[in-house]
Automatic annotation (TrEMBL):
Pathway(s) per entry: Carbohydrate degradation; glycolysis; pyruvate from D-glyceraldehyde 3-phosphate: step 2/5
UniProt entry tagged with the keyword Kinase: yes
Organism: Glycomyces lechevalierae
Subcellular location: Cytoplasm
Taxon lineage: Bacteria, Bacillati, Actinomycetota, Actinomycetes, Glycomycetales
Gene: pgk
Protein name as catalogued: Phosphoglycerate kinase
Reaction catalysis annotation: (2R)-3-phosphoglycerate + ATP = (2R)-3-phospho-glyceroyl phosphate + ADP
Listed GO CC annotations: cytosol
UniProt-annotated binding residues for substrate: 22-24, 37, 60-63, 119, 156
Binding site for (2R)-3-phosphoglycerate: 37, 119, 156
A matching Pfam family: PGK
Length: 398
């Protein structure tokens, strides 16, 4: 695929460049609680602006239902993007309407304009090819060329991700190029020992990545809510912990397959439990063979965390996706923090697979530069590692 470097070499002074960014940041009202995605795409936007391009940025935020919703406005993002770039970012109050058109026409060389939320328009996410193509045509009218730097959206066949690339000369931004470079290392021949750590709530969310990576790793570590389905597959009672009963047999299959492959599938030996799902619930750490019937596991226990950290310390390559517990509750954050700190302390090439794992790194105050790479796309990074074809990448490669 062609990259931003090639576009900059061609020259962009005075040219209109439509940039698809992933500015889907968490908001508390109008306050941005994590600006990681804004900072991640800023270098691409700044490089284009510095080179004299007339930059029009578009993004989605949240899941509005195809019509304007003030709760999902990108207005606060425009302000923060301007602060990160160190220059004014104009904001259009619509996506492809009169305000967007007039502000795009008024742009000078180096100016940056952010359009309102793409998902305020039904055509963005439509499964009807004609409706989606019509909206893509309206977006494409803002650019002479198209740069996609929204890795967190490349697994979606949306108008701004897939269809616009059919209409304009297209290039991958620096963020997408970096994501593909890093993730391809994990699916190719990563340096051994290779350790994969999977957490989060559900086994069903991670089945395909387990299936695709099991014969490539030396150790597969399982924590978070998904660990209880694996423990149930081993015959343990898990109390009121999160359990996907319909996946128990699948977990048994993976345990058997790992044993045949000589892969260590490492499960927790202890868990920190609570009587209810609440931040102020009194914690009690027990062995996984002694979980009370009326309690639920909300974190891995300290012995498990130490074992996981030891495996990380001996690794050369590590991929981590999914917290080890409910890190948002201080009493149940220790497992996630221990694993994350072990990655910071490790000499391994470490990749944090976006989503809740990236949020945990920032919430727990760990240094982002302590990791080899923090992905901006949780779902996209998992689908890449599952070996799926991602529509946004496919469009850039063709």
């Amino acid at each position: 695929m062609k990259t931003l470097d090639e576009l900059l070499q061609e020259g962009v002074n005075g040219r209109r460049v439509l940039v698809r960014a992933d500015l889907n940041v968490p908001l508390d009202g109008k306050n941005i609680t994590d600006d990681g995605r804004i900072r991640a795409v800023a270098p691409t936007v700044k490089a284009l602006s510095d080179a004299g391009a007339r930059v029009v940025v578009c993004s989605h935020l949240g899941r509005p239902k195809g019509e304007p919703d003030p709760a999902f406005s990108l207005a606060p993002v425009a302000q923060r993007l301007g602060e990160v770039l160190g220059r004014e970012v104009a904001f259009a109050t619509d996506t492809v309407g009169t305000d967007a058109e007039s502000k795009a026409v008024a742009q000078g060389d180096g100016d940056v304009l952010l359009l309102e939320n793409l998902r305020f328009n039904k055509g963005e996410t439509s499964k009807d090819d004609t409706q989606r193509a019509e909206f893509a045509g309206q977006l494409a009218a803002f650019g002479d060329v198209y740069v996609d730097d929204a890795f967190g959206a490349v697994h979606r066949k949306h108008a701004s991700v897939f269809d616009v690339a059919q209409l304009l000369p297209h290039y991958a931004g620096w963020l997408i190029a970096k994501e593909v470079e890093v993730l391809s290392k994990l699916t190719g021949k990563p340096e051994q020992p290779y350790v994969v750590i999977l957490g989060g709530a559900k086994v069903s969310d991670k089945l395909a990545v387990i299936d695709n990576l099991l014969d490539k790793v030396d150790t597969l570590i399982v924590g978070g809510g998904m660990m209880f389905t694996f423990l149930a597959a081993q015959g343990y009672e898990v109390g009121s912990s999160l359990l996907e009963k319909d996946q128990i047999e699948t977990c048994k299959t993976y345990l058997e397959r790992a044993a045949k492959l000589g892969v260590e599938l490492l499960l927790p030996v202890d868990t920190t439990t609570a009587a209810e799902f609440a931040a102020d619930a009194e914690p009690l750490t027990v062995g996984v063979d002694a979980i009370p019937a009326d309690r639920m596991g909300l974190d891995i226990g300290p012995e498990s965390a130490k074992t996981f950290a030891d495996r990380i310390a001996g690794a050369k390559t590590v991929f981590w996706n999914g917290p080890m517990g409910v890190f948002e509750f201080p009493d149940y954050a220790a497992g996630t923090k221990t694993v994350a700190q072990a990655l910071v302390d490790s000499e391994a090439f470490s990749v944090v697979g976006g989503g809740d794992s990236a949020a945990a790194v920032r919430t727990l105050g760990l240094p982002e530069d302590g990791f080899g790479h923090i992905s901006t796309g949780g779902g996209a990074s998992l689908e890449y590692l599952e070996g799926k074809t991602l529509p946004g990448l496919d469009a850039l490669e063709n």
